[in-house]
Amino acid sequence: MSYLTLLADILFVGHSLVGPSLPAMVEGGARLQGQEMSVAAQVINGAPLRFAWDNSADGEQGDARVILPQGDTKVLVLTEAVPVANQIEWNDSAGYVAKFAGLAWESRPDTQVYIYETWPSIKSSPGVVIEGDAGAGVPWRERLTADLPLWEGMTATANAARPDGAPLVRLIPAGQAMGRLADAIAAGQVPGITTLQALYDDDIHPSHQTLYFLALVHLSVITGKDPAGLPPKLTRQWLSRAGVISDAQAAVFQRIAWDAVTTYRADDTPRIEALAAAAPAAPVQTPAPAAAATPAAIAQPEPAIAAAPAITPPSTADLPRAITNPKLALGLSGVVDWSVQQPFLDVMKTARPWVGQLPGQWGGIEYETLRDGGYLDPNGWPTSLPLEATGITTLFLTDLPADAGMVAGRYVLRYAGAGAMKLEGRAQIVDGGPGLIVFDYTPGSGSVSLTITAVDAANPIREISVVRDDRLAAHDAGAMFNPDWLARIRGTKGLRFMDWMDTNNSTLARLQDRPKPADFSWAIKGVPVEVMVALANDLRADAWFTLPHLADDALVRAYAEVVRDRLAAGLRAQVEYSNEMWNWQFTQATWADEQCRARWDASDCWVQFYALRAAEVADIWAEVFGPADADRLVRVIATQTGWQGLEEQIFDAPLAVAEGRKPPVDSFDAYAVTGYFAAGLGSDDKAAVLQGWLRDSRQMAVSQADQQSLTGPARDAYIAQHRFDMATDRAATELENGFVTGQTADTLVSLLTSVLPYHAGIAAARGLDLVMYEGGTHVVATASLLNDDDVTAFFHHLNYSPQMGVLYDRLIEGWAALTPEPFNAFVDIYSPNKWGSWGGLRHLGDDNPRWQSLAHGCKSC
Questions:
Q1: Does residue 300 share a domain with residue 266?
Q2: Single GO molecular-function term (predicted)?
Q3: Fewer beta carbons within 10 angstroms: which end of the chain, N or C?
Q4: Is residue 775 part of a domain?
């Protein structure tokens, strides 16, 4: 397969009714309409979609399962073998449409998927018998109408599971168009063609003249343009002497094709949407265990609640629109059981590490003891229980706020193997059986608790998944990511995976210990690199990886190879060694200090050792990517933004250069800084000022309530709503320029006029791109204010206030004036607490002025 074949804008998957010629004619026609599009095809003659999926490597012109993951396909055209009723009955046509569509959407969610409706044998008529075709006795023209619902029905499974934002799977009504063409021939309206047979080379395959007509039908659907005026010849040469078309014939073909498409598409959407809505949920498929579990071995739900009504998840239709800011990147919040991000369809991937339960207490046996004691298999599933334990427990869906949109619903827990388990906490069990528990969940304080109390050593419980029931079909088709989450962050230009990789304080060093897709949870060692790349491909976003500070060369190289091979064309990989190696609150800084002291018998040299190892990591990635892919790789070196001059030790690392090494700066493409501002509001230095603002602000709210003669609950509500008004205005002014206290350090103005311009100058002088690794509000309580509930409540209010949105507008515009690289907000979604208000969104259903600025700001970009 040539490289060019992998760059298809339009991809056909089909058989001889696609043939070698139709794709080329569609490509030629689009070019003549002013749209340059490359068209490729996977053609296996006679193949139903099931065979095309299972044997894609045998495609005569291409392999869809290789092409689609590249993420370049804008239009996917699928067609089923005929007779179509046979394929639907025996070959799961709708399921295989969903498989191909799901593969396309995984790499490019905006791919438009079409089903190319074909036609039955023209021999079809009363009294005719065709082997294997039960509908042969129906007249051909009537059969086109009768078969149309079968073709439309193939869309249902894919449409029911398509990700948010993906276009509806629809038909290219070629069969209906052929019927109209036959009607025109019968009416004597097609010059030079007088019989239906003239359209075919046999009873099923179209003539070369008919291929021109079919190309027009495809073009009418795909481009949305009337084909009128196209020349009779769409390719450089006629397909054959018999395929020559006159201008008069071309004009009639164009009119009929356009009329057929516009008539069909005038009312197809409601029918197809109704089919998707009526599509049954994917059947719950319990993996077959090696030995069947006995009924007594499975904890069963109480029959009395089996008929409880399902909780209907809220519609995604009311969510704010996707990100339109062309210069926004996002750091992703860490994967934990209490994450409001909820990134995965399988909630089990966010589960807490197992803890062994000792009698009479919670816990008592840590995950590391279970792992090191041989009680868990390499993927983390239990193989046995400690003799002293009553069970092992994990938690998920923990402490999610009551207003955490899109999380409530009915969930299905499935597993393989035998044993006993119980589901407690916020789970309300409604059904169950061997390998299956169905439960309802509403967010709130507490967790869903899963405890395994017995394990069959010969067939232990494993492969547990927890998926909302309306997402089972998508999950079973291979989808990984929660579409509600994707819908909130789609449009971001980049993703930084620092928290997903569990970078800070990481203990990961060896390749064999890295996170793997089969791990029972990705909340223990971090998210596998394959999953991070899949997300970047899905969102069409650059991917920023932060390699653990202990990582050996084999681990570094393996990550680079996965990213090189799997990251979609057109996306950049950004690689950084660890995170904030200068920051002493993380063990990586202490470790670097130990290494430099041992290596050079020197002090204050930790950032030089950081630079040395960072350069080695960057060089490994550069070697793996090679010159051919060098433009896909950005090697990043970072500094402490507030310590001007520290970057010189990092860039030049004289102790490393004294070993005969090149200066570390030579190994990098980009220089990373932060874009934070806080004006010291959470520090002890301003504690008295801040607390005074809060007293004054509340007193003003009280006075205003009294002036309005409010009493009782109305007075209390007014005060609660307005108690931070004055303080918010004062804090916003202080954050912007420090004018309230006269202290300008760490303000937005200082950041934009002094700190960031300094680093922009450094980057330019060193020939590096200036990039941001984190940025935004850093207003958080510290020291004596950390446990002050009033301060915490105020900071939560301030960080999502309209005033903060205005400050973000200025910050984002100011950054864009310094560099073309995106503003990197820390983080996407995070529930505020006393440790910070880091999320642009507070939960999946949130909207706020700060997020509006991030998602839709940078008007000058």
A1: no
A2: hydrolase activity, acting on ester bonds
A3: N
A4: no
For residue 241, the enclosing domain spans 4-278
Contact 51, 549 (CB under 8 A): no
Q: Is residue 379 part of a domain?
A: yes
Residues in Cβ contact with 334 at an 8 Å cutoff, skipping those fewer than 6 apart: 499, 500, 502
Element of type H or E holding 182 = helix 174-186
Query: If DSSP codes are grouped into helix, strand and coil, which group holds residue 414?
Result: strand
User: Tokens standing for 265?
Assistant: 């598409």
Whether 223 and 177 map to the same domain: the answer is yes
Q: Specify whether 79 is located in the same domain as 124.
A: yes
How far is the C-alpha of 795 from the C-alpha of 610, rounded, in Å? 35
Taking 80 as the threshold, does the pLDDT of residue 172 lie above it? yes
- Same-domain status, 456 and 564: no
The pLDDT of residue 291 is above 80 = no
Residues 154, 171: Cα–Cα separation, whole Å: 9
Residue-level pLDDT at 546: 99
Predicted confidence band at 473 (pLDDT cuts at 50, 70, 90)?
confident
| 222 and 367 part of one domain | no
Q: Does some domain include residue 807? A: no
Whether residues 273 and 138 share a domain: the answer is yes
Give the pTM: 0.68
Mean pLDDT of 755-777: 99
Measure Cα distances from 164 to 262, 294, 314, 542 in Å: 26, 41, 14, 20
Q: How far apart are CA 799 and CA 802, in angstroms?
A: 9
Contact between 284 and 436 (Cβ < 8 Å): yes
Distance of CA 597 to the CA centre of its chain: 43
Where are the alpha helices (H) located in 522-661, listed in sequence order? 529-539, 553-566, 587-600, 606-625, 646-652, 654-657
What's the angle, vertex CA 87, arms to CA 84 and CA 89, rounded to 5?
110
Please tell me the distance from the alpha carbon of residue 744 to that of residue 753, in angstroms, as a whole number. 11
Domain holding 111: CATH number? Answer: 3.40.50.1110
